[in-house]
From TrEMBL:
PANTHER family: CITRATE SYNTHASE, CITRATE SYNTHASE 2-RELATED. GO terms for biological process: carbohydrate metabolic process; tricarboxylic acid cycle. SUPFAM superfamilies: Citrate synthase. PROSITE patterns: CITRATE_SYNTHASE. Pfam families: Citrate_synt. The active site is at H246, E305. GO terms for cellular component: cytosol. InterPro entries: Citrate_synth-like_lrg_a-sub (IPR016142), Citrate_synth-like_sm_a-sub (IPR016143), Citrate_synthase (IPR002020), Citrate_synthase_AS (IPR019810), Citrate_synthase_bac-typ (IPR024176), Citrate_synthase_sf (IPR036969). It comes from the Bacteria. This is Citrate synthase. Pathway: Carbohydrate metabolism; tricarboxylic acid cycle; isocitrate from oxaloacetate: step 1/2.
C-alpha cells in the first residue's frame, strides 16, 4: 500500500502530464513555455475543453460566452451577502457557487468558469465596504477580473500578468483537487459537485492554500539579511517552508519560472512591488541553500505557490482570496478532467486495508 498513493497511476488522460525529474509540464501536447505568456486563458480553455462537450466553441466563441456568463453570474450576487462577508473570500466564493444547479453541459461549465472570476472581486470589494463593479463582457477574462477588482481600466501589462497566471495553473496532472473532481465526476453527480469537491481540496496549505502563508513568511522575515536566521529557526521548530517542495517535482517547478518572468515583466512597468521582489529573491535563495543542506536526501525546490503569492499580491488581491484566484485558472482543468472521467471512466472505488479490531465471535 502506498501512503499518499505515490506513484499510483489512477487514470489515463489526454489532458496534461507532469515530468517531475525533467521539470516539464505538458498541456494537450504543448509544453508550458509554449503556453504561458503566449496564449490567452480563453485559447487555453478552447484547447483543454476541445473534447469535453458535443459543442466545440473556439477561443473567440468562448471569450464571448464567458463574458455573457460573467454578466449572468454578477446578477446572482445576493443583496444580502452580509453573512458571507465574515468568511474568508475563498470560502464565501465556494458557498455562492454551491447555489448553482448541477449539470454536465457546456452552459454549466461556462457558469463555473465565470463564478470565481465574478464572486472573488465582488466579495473583496464588499468586505472593503465598496460596491461591486459590474463585468464588462467586451474585455478578456483576465482583464475583466482586474477591472471588477479595481473599478478602473487595467493596464495591458496587468491583464497579461493575470492571463499568464491563469494559463500557468490551468491544469497539472493528477493533483489532489483534480483527483477529487474525478472521484465525484465518476459518480455522475455533475460538474458543479465535482468542481466544489475540487475547490475544497485546493484550499489546504499542502496544495493551493500555500501562497497566503508565503506572504506571512516574507512579512515575518522583513529584510533579506534576516532570511537565514528566520528560516533556520522555522525548520528547527519543525515547520515547513511554504512555497517549497512538491510531491512530483524533484527540480524547480516550471510554473515558478513562468510566474517569476510574468512578475519581472510587471515590475519593469512601474513601481509594482520591486522591493518585495528583491526580498522574495533573497528569501528564495536562502531557503534553497538551507533546504539543500538540511534535507540532502529530498530535493526541495521552489514550487508554483512562491511566485503566485507575489504576483497576486502585486495585482492587488488580498491573501484570503488567493485560493479562489487559483480556482479561476484551475477550474478549466477540473472541468476537462471531470468530463473526461464521465465520458471514459468507471466509478472510482478503491479498497482499504482494515487494521482495526475484529468482532469476537460468540462461541
Ligand atoms: N519545508 C521543509 N521540509 C519539507 C518541505 C518544506 N516545504 N516539504 C517537504 N519537506 C520535508 C518533510 O518534512 C519530509 O522530511 P522528513 O522525511 O525528514 O520527515 C520530506 O520533506 C518529505 O515530505 P512529504 O510530506 O512526504 O513530501 P510530499 O511529497 O508529500 O510533500 C508538499 C509535498 C506537501 C507540497 C510539501 O513539500 C510541503 O508541505 N510544502 C510546503 C507547502 C506548499 O508549498 N504547498 C504548495 C504545493 S504546490 C501545489 O499544490 C499547487
Amino acid at each position: 500500500m502506498k501512503n499518499g498513493l505515490d506513484d499510483v497511476v489512477a487514470t489515463e488522460t489526454t489532458l496534461s502530464d507532469v515530468d517531475g525529474l525533467g521539470g516539464i509540464l505538458i498541456i494537450r501536447g504543448r509544453s508550458l513555455d509554449e503556453l504561458a505568456g503566449v496564449v490567452s486563458y480563453e485559447e487555453l480553455l478552447a484547447l483543454l475543453l476541445s473534447d469535453a462537450f458535443d459543442e466545440k466553441p473556439d477561443a473567440d466563441g468562448l471569450r464571448r460566452r464567458i463574458g455573457l456568463a460573467r454578466q449572468e453570474i454578477f446578477r446572482t450576487i445576493p443583496d444580502a451577502a452580509a453573512p458571507l462577508l465574515t468568511l474568508p473570500v475563498t470560502d464565501a466564493v465556494r458557498a455562492l457557487t454551491a447555489q448553482f444547479t448541477d449539470g454536465d453541459d457546456l452552459a454549466t461549465a461556462l457558469r463555473l468558469i465565470a463564478a470565481p472570476a465574478v464572486f472573488t472581486p465582488a466579495l473583496i470589494r464588499l468586505k472593503n465596504g465598496q460596491t461591486p463593479v459590474a463585468p464588462d463582457p467586451s474585455l478578456s477574462h483576465a482583464a475583466d477580473i482586474l477591472h471588477m477588482l479595481h473599478g478602473r481600466t487595467v493596464t495591458p501589462q496587468e491583464a497579461a500578468a493575470l492571463d499568464t497566471y491563469l494559463v500557468t495553473v490551468s491544469d497539472h496532472g493528477m493533483n489532489a483537487s483534480t483527483f477529487a473532481a474525478r472521484v465525484v465526476a465518476s459518480t455522475h453527480a455533475g460538474l458543479v459537485s465535482s468542481v466544489l469537491a475540487a475547490f475544497g481540496a485546493l484550499k489546504g496549505p499542502l496544495h493551493g492554500g500555500a501562497p497566503g502563508p508565503v506572504l506571512d513568511m516574507l512579512d515575518a522575515i522583513g529584510t533579506p539579511d534576516n532570511a537565514e536566521t528566520w528560516l533556520e529557526k522555522a525548520l528547527d521548530d519543525g515547520e515547513r517552508l511554504m512555497g517549497f517542495g512538491h510531491r512530483i517535482y524533484r527540480v524547480r517547478d516550471p510554473r515558478a519560472d513562468a510566474l517569476m518572468q510574468a512578475l519581472r515583466r510587471l515590475a519593469g512597468t512601474g513601481n509594482h512591488g520591486a522591493g518585495r521582489f528583491k526580498l522574495a529573491e533573497g528569501v528564495e535563495a536562502a531557503a534553497l541553500r538551507i533546504l539543500a543542506r538540511r534535507k540532502p536526501d529530498r530535493p526541495l525546490k521552489t514550487n508554483v505557490e512562491f511566485y503566485t503569492a507575489l504576483l497576486l499580491e502585486t495585482l492587488g488581491f488580498p491573501r484570503d482570496s488567493f485560493t479562489s484566484v487559483f480556482a479561476m485558472g484551475r477550474v478549466g482543468g477540473w472541468i476537462a478532467h471531470a468530463r473526461e472521467q464521465t465520458q471514459h471512466g468507471r466509478l472510482i472505488r478503491p479498497q482499504s486495508r482494515y487494521t482495526g479490531p475484529r468482532p469476537i465471535k460468540a462461541a
